[in-house]
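FYI - complex with 2-acetamido-2-deoxy-beta-D-glucopyranose, inputs then prediction.
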Amino acid sequence: MATPFILIVFCLITSPPSASSSSSTHHNDYITLNEGSSLSVERPDHVLISPNAIFTAGFYPVGENAYSFAIWFTEPSCSNCRTVVWMANRDAPINGRNSKLSLLKTGNLILTDAGKSVVWASNTFSLSSSSLQLYDTGNLVLITTTNRVILWQSFDAPTDTLLPLQPLNRDSLLVSSRSLTNFSSGFYKLAFDDDNVLRLVYDGPEVSSAFWPAHWLLSREAGRSSYNSSRIALLDAFGNFTSSDNFTFFSADYGVQLQRRLTLDFDGNLRLYSRENENGSWVISWQAFAQPCKIHAACGPNSVCKYVPSFGRKCSCLPGYKIKNPADCL
Ligand SMILES: *[C@@H]1O[C@H](CO)[C@@H](O)[C@H](O)[C@H]1NC(C)=O
Ligand SMILES: *[C@@H]1O[C@H](CO)[C@@H](O)[C@H](O)[C@H]1NC(C)=O
Ligand SMILES: *[C@@H]1O[C@H](CO)[C@@H](O)[C@H](O)[C@H]1NC(C)=O
Ligand SMILES: *[C@@H]1O[C@H](CO)[C@@H](O)[C@H](O)[C@H]1NC(C)=O
Ligand SMILES: *[C@@H]1O[C@H](CO)[C@@H](O)[C@H](O)[C@H]1NC(C)=O
């Protein structure tokens, strides 16, 4: 295990442990980012690890000399096969030199690009001291040291993935990635609509349309209710998903506690993945569309969609057109 090494690093980069943790010998007490400290993009060892070691937060390469501050499943650990679950700056990657995530003494967490511009901030302020910690659930939390008041948490601002116990609410939404390899914001969204119904929407440059539940069904026919205005949806640890619009599903492996994630994939399909152990591969345990060609704008204009069981769908262009983007025939 790499833990002792990480422990040493964090003793160096964090301020001396506070009184509450200095009496403890448990090393995870030090795996936090304290006020006045920062994580550097140039140091691969500058990461936060959850006490159960399942999640890691740090700088993730998203392109040539381009990084995002992200949270990923610690295993598998190869640099370009990680499963990312959250990103702070997916649409504004930072330079690989001189960029850092800093927790200011004012309680603001900021991400600076190449020592200059601030590309992302928690916009928080606290008179009492605070620290940044990665919880066992995968939630990155900025919390005051003495009163344990949560100033900011990544669970409130999801990217394309919900983890178990991470609620989706009226203020949050999932936005798909651009492609399998491009983590920028794509065109598919999952959110509660004005009528309290949880919907998948294609929000492209030219058209916007809801496609799940199917637009030709009344909400009631789709088993949805618009009466409950609490607008909250949650996946529990055992694979039970419930939404306040009365939509529910159970994962195929419901009942056991596995590593799970509900991801709005770049192809517009919402999928629940699970795996038995950290070195196992992700298995789809539920998905919104069994036939991916039914997803809105699945293949873009001038194209045909074909269902390929091993991958999902395959797009090809009509005669006379050629592929520009993976989803566009021009
Ligand atoms: C990802 O896609 C966006 C939008 O098309 C583009 O601006 C960006 O350069 C792409 N990023 C990478 C790393 O290819
Ligand atoms: C699933 O979760 C909902 C909401 O927490 C709960 O009411 C329901 O009883 C759960 N179902 C099962 C089978 O555990
Ligand atoms: C509305 O949904 C929430 C969350 O699912 C649930 O706890 C609550 O009981 C529901 N309210 C009504 C009136 O059904
Ligand atoms: C929600 O679903 C349950 C079980 O299917 C049903 O009994 C109940 O009437 C539904 N509630 C609404 C408001 O549609
Ligand atoms: C997963 O694989 C890594 C490296 O191959 C190994 O160190 C670790 O013990 C494995 N973990 C499990 C739970 O099998």
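Confidence is low (pLDDT under 50) at residues 1-30. The chain is about 5% helix and 40% strand.
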